[in-house]
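Lecture notes, part 5. Sequence design as translation. It can be helpful to think of inverse folding as translation between two languages: the language of shapes and the language of residues. The source text, in structure tokens, appears below.
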């Protein structure tokens, strides 16, 4: 198998993936849901998504990956697209245990300091995992954890018109601006859910990082940020 077709493992820590609706059965290697005791159970049901958000993220990844991606689905978000800081910390730790090349966190906290989450992200980075995180809708950059943390590929919707473009602002806490167009998916109740902005931008950037990793295996977080800075459409 060549590096161009090598299957990468990506951990998606989100609301889950609806494999039944979106036909992601082959793309999702394992699916898990956080239980009331704080651990994680294997989810054999086709629908592991609580609000449609994770399915939208998986849709972008699937469209951009050409089938050369395996998603580890770690569901922590509830029907209101939210979770506790403890759940986020546990989800990151659990996802990292699968040793994915990339972890996508299309979510953000609403606090300026989250020691448990920061610890979990730091350990994931030390394991060599590229962590891509969204700023979060309406979240100030100072509270954009984990997107603003050192070593994380922090992403928000930027002023770009093409899927393959992004901007880089070295002076910002969240440095990457990517295309944040609308993604439509179905929730477990069958209603249409629209996802756009920072979340879809982060999923797109995760796919771009995957593409780079296929041709440059072993790329560190530092080297990935260097690549994104040097190949940005604009910024420095």
């Amino acid at each position: 198998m060549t590096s161009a077709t090598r299957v990468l493992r990506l951990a998606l820590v989100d609301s889950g993936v609806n494999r039944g609706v979106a036909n992601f059965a082959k793309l999702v290697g394992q699916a898990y849901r956080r239980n009331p005791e704080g651990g994680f159970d294997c989810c054999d049901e086709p629908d592991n998504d609580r609000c449609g958000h994770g399915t939208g993220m998986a849709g972008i990844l699937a469209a951009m990956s050409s089938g050369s991606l395996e998603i580890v689905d770690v569901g922590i978000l509830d029907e209101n697209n939210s979770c506790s800081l403890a759940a986020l910390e546990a989800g990151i730790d659990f996802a990292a245990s699968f040793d994915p090349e990339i972890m996508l966190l299309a979510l953000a906290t609403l606090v300026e300091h989250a020691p448990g989450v920061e610890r979990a992200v730091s350990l994931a980075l030390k394991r060599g995992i590229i962590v891509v995180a969204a700023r979060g809708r309406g979240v100030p950059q100072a509270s954009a954890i984990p997107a603003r943390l050192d070593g994380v590929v922090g992403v928000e919707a930027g002023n770009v018109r093409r899927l393959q473009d992004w901007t880089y602002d070295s002076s910002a806490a969240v440095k990457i601006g990517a295309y944040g167009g609308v993604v439509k998916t179905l929730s477990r109740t069958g209603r249409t859910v629209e996802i756009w902005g920072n979340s879809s931008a982060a999923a797109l950037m995760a796919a771009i990082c995957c593409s780079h990793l296929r041709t440059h295996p072993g790329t560190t977080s530092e080297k990935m940020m260097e690549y994104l800075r040097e190949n940005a459409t604009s910024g420095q």
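The translated text above is only one of many valid answers, since several sequences can fold into similar shapes. The longest helix spans residues 198-215.
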